[in-house]
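[AMINO ACID CHAIN]
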Amino acid sequence: MEVFNSFSLKEVITCFMVLFAVIDIIGSVPIVVSLQQKFGQIEAGKASITAGLIMIVFLFVGNKILKFIGVDVNSFAIAGAFVIFVIALEMILGIEINKTTEAKSASIVPIAFPLVAGAGTLTTTLSLRAEFHDINIICGIILNTIFVYLVLKSAKWIEKKMGEASLAILQKVFGIILLAISIKLFTANFAQLVQNYINF
């Protein structure tokens, strides 16, 4: 019951929006459509559930890995802030630093991983633990998983209705939001890290 006492709708919405911006499934619609044409029908349920499970598992296992290698959450969150910063620049400037879409099957690779649950998403998921409770992050992941499923199911319809121009504008808007989030994440955790060292 203590877990549910930590539930906060505000935190859930924040976690959802952060992950939503990082995953950028709307901006990935053209890629999804291209993969459908190349590999055939994508199993939306299989892809979204797999991505959701990867994020949830990493949320808990990732922290243990950090402890094993001797890295604290604040330091990892700062590293995550840099990753989010780079992703935001990609979205705003329309550049690609590291993006692979070649695969033998589309539902799990590259849709579930790395398109949805990629390095940026997993880093962000773990970075969120520095500020939010696990239950709220999990709820944010589940909501994003549902949204990813809906988008994958109707990818062709979304691209047809919105058009490339609208998708590009939406991508840049979320890029700016993501840029602001990365700066906030960096400043908050950097301040905490400095305070920990001073107290030490």
Notes: The mean pLDDT is 83. The two ends are 34 Å apart (CA to CA).
